[in-house]
């Protein structure tokens, strides 16, 4: 990108007034219908606490989702919400952000919605870098349709749709996000609510596309809660989140699953670049009606 274009970009600022609300004030009053013990309850609690800590007015928040257990998320939050179609949370969220850039836009989904039918959108959203946060609740299973292997399920998983075990190698969401050059990449765990709250806050405060993989076990069809508790560990304090290669090495760590911020490197957002392009177009020396009239004679 030309340096003069970057220099001409003016950071966008949100215009809302901060509010003093409790985490409960950000709950819609609709009772969640997840199975008892589902990790998504922990994600909802951490998300509500993050909103309260950030003091964001509910009317300035838009939550967009696709299809799946976790995609019911917008219904349970006191904000604007859009329960969209399968795998389309990211393009819908981008559209909302482009139309109303002052709003806080959060996309949510599960591993199936994000990395199966929605997989084609992910790298392109990452490279465009719109100022939205993407929370993916990963339970390594299709829970809403009663327990089929998902894109993140381990090899050999025996379920109804794979009675002899899955054959496919699972995707690694962290490596995928890093390879796609997302400007913020992190992983949290629903069983560690305090740490998850801080991660969500950091993601929402990041200016650009922030991706958070959240380990959120499905207790009904793939209860790996205890296994995840034994396998997760915090990212070393010595890690430099500006080092993408080091982040990739952490993602491939064979001794367990790291939790925390793997990578964060701000860069111009998609909205800022579009505004710069519009400003440049407004200064162009041509008469648009006259040009259009050439084709209407």
Shape verdict: globular
- CATH class reads Alpha Beta
Q: Provide a count of the helices.
A: 11
Bin the strand percentage: 15-25%
- What are the segments in which pLDDT stays under 50 over at least 5 consecutive residues? 1-15
Query: Which fold name fills CATH's third level, the topology?
Result: Rossmann fold
The helicity comes to 25-40%
Question: How many individual β-strands?
Answer: 8
The CATH superfamily name is: Thiamin diphosphate (ThDP)-binding fold, Pyr/PP domains
Report on the biggest sheet. Answer: 8 strands, mixed
- CATH 2nd-level architecture: 3-Layer(aba) Sandwich
Strand order of the largest sheet: 2-1-3-4-6-5-8-7
How many domains would you count in the coordinates? 1
What is the gyration radius calculated from CA atoms? 20 Å
Describe this structure in words.
The protein has 297 residues and is an alpha/beta fold. The chain has one domain: Thiamin diphosphate (ThDP)-binding fold, Pyr/PP domains (Rossmann fold, 3-Layer(aba) Sandwich). Helices cover 34% and strands 15% of the residues. It has 11 helices and 8 strands. It has an 8-stranded mixed β-sheet with strand order 2-1-3-4-6-5-8-7, sandwiched between helices. Helix 2 packs across helix 7 (193-205) and helix 6 (173-179) packs antiparallel against helix 9 (244-251).
Write the layout of secondary structure elements.
Layout: H1 3-8, H2 39-54, E1 61-65, E2 80-83, H3 89-99, E3 104-110, H4 111-117, H5 122-128, E4 133-138, H6 173-179, E5 184-189, H7 193-205, E6 210-215, H8 225-231, E7 232-234, H9 244-251, E8 257-264, H10 270-282, H11 288-293
Parallel strand pairs: 1-2, 1-3, 3-4, 4-6, 5-6, 7-8
Antiparallel strand pairs: 5-8
Helix pairs in contact: 2-7, 6-9
